[in-house]
Amino acid sequence: MALALVALVVVSICPGSFHGVSAVSVSVTATPNINPSPAPLSTAAREFLESHNQARAQVGVAPLIWSENLANATSRLVRYQRINKGCEFANLTSGKYGANQSWGSGGVAVTPRMAVDSWVNEKNYYHHSNNSCEPNHMCGVYTQVVWRKSLELGCGQAFCNKDQATLTICFYNPPGNYVGESPY
Ligand SMILES: *[C@@H]1O[C@H](CO)[C@@H](O)[C@H](O)[C@H]1NC(C)=O
Ligand SMILES: *[C@@H]1O[C@H](CO)[C@@H](O)[C@H](O)[C@H]1NC(C)=O
Ligand SMILES: *[C@@H]1O[C@H](CO)[C@@H](O)[C@H](O)[C@H]1NC(C)=O
């Protein structure tokens, strides 16, 4: 019953097209992770990674690896949005990574899997045969999840008491969703 109150909104950004709502300009920096012996992943990181990699496996695309650099960059960004913007969507238009974000409210914290599932659900409106999306849908959030040339993932979440809102942001490196290019 509580779950039914959750409203997930999905926004997608990519180098060639913009589908979303933006709130603020934020500069985010991170460098590729070359650490050969990363620390064990948190429960949230594993859930983000598993839900992405399940969607990728379904279409024969190799798994993403977790990037602490990207995760730190998303953590800084969602913290900024929480402190300054009441967990509104971030302005991702000038970022150098691919990015997906989701906003959910209704008194139930949005889990990593719920956020990723909201992106993957756009698969229902995506036609791989001609790389097109049905009108009024944002398949870009799905195609970034399964973008073959994206190799690294990092995600962060913040919760705001106002609206009981959860903001989830994931970064992808290299970015996906080049216009005219098929994800896989
Ligand atoms: C988002 O950032 C870009 C680039 O910094 C800027 O041009 C744009 O106006 C911003 N959008 C909003 C809604 O603030
Ligand atoms: C990420 O943040 C953690 C905690 O602040 C820090 O210990 C770690 O060195 C950072 N990693 C990278 C690659 O920036
Ligand atoms: C793409 O293909 C689907 C069916 O495979 C079709 O319904 C849709 O109209 C096509 N879209 C475009 C833009 O050609």
From TrEMBL:
Domain of life: Eukaryota
SUPFAM superfamilies membership: PR-1-like
Signal peptide: 1-23
Residue ranges constituting the SCP domain according to the UniProt record: 43-180
Keyword Zinc-finger assigned: no
UniProt KW keywords: Signal
Keyword Manganese: no
Name assigned to this protein: SCP domain-containing protein
Organism from which the protein derives: Acer saccharum
Organism lineage: Eukaryota, Viridiplantae, Streptophyta, Embryophyta, Tracheophyta
